[in-house]
Succinylglutamate desuccinylase
Amino acid sequence: MSYSTQPAFIQSHQFTALQPGPRLLVLGAVHGNETCGTQAIAQVLDDLASGAFAIERGVLTMVPVTNPLAYRQRTRQGDRNLNRNLRVTAQPADFEDHVGNVLCPLLEAHNVLLDLHSFHTPGQPFIMAGPTNNAGGLEPFQRSEEETRMVAHLGPRRVVEGWMDVYARGVERRQHAQVAPATPTVGLLDAGYGIGTSEYMRSRGGYGVTLECGQHDDPEAVGVAYRAIRQALALLGMASLALKPAVPTFEVLRLADVIDREHENDRFTQPWKSFDPVKAGQAIGQRHDGRIVTAPANGFVVFPNPNALPGNEWFYFAQESDRTFG
């Protein structure tokens, strides 16, 4: 597809109150086949247009379709995954580079992010949270208390952490692997591969989370996203909306590893769903040459993607975490 036939703009809706306050950015369809956020944003826009509530403090910006090419194609990505290697690029090489050059300044202009996603297989909603406060080199962060409070009020009771650590592990493994030149792993070999919307927001002094609202086609996912937007506005004091109580207890998991699909004939041993439990040594998949991929310990399969491109993430492995939320 020539660039002239690709989408030429990203549409956003901004509401600026007369009283100062937080600057909240809500994103939908960062991946084009994940449309629950798009639909939820439309419902919030209807609420604001009808006067059901108003933005009374701060700035609310909502982007219903963050990746319009992928959305038009009804695919996860256009030329590549927008939610990886997110940065400003002086010489854009693909459509997502152009989007990043608009999206990154938009993230920098806000201080709180709610990024709405969905996933392949059936399962309950969950939140991807950032690290605890730290001054380390991988993902330094000093707003964990605010982010934790946000997590506690969005609704889902399952939280997953450890994304940047596991991405770094995956990049290191790929850099040492013998990968055929035709395997599409160019971005996957970049040390900045793990940086998506929430990671970029944290790197610029803000905070925010990615909310996985349910399976792509589950109509309940739209309600999860809609309620989360309203809860975020209530929590931040931006609108006169009732704040529901924090979730009392959480299931917290930490990603331990990412396993790539090496060949188009690599197959799972069963139709895994996210957070299916596995025992140490249990077979999860079989490589094209007969090798068995097993669980390294007791844990959980996360984001299994039977249609992953060779050289891309096939599934993640997670274990229970002792971190607390709420």
Q: What stands out?
A: The domain at 3-252 is CATH 3.40.630.10 (Aminopeptidase). The helical segments are 36-50, 68-73, 95-108, 144-153, 163-176, 197-203, 220-235.
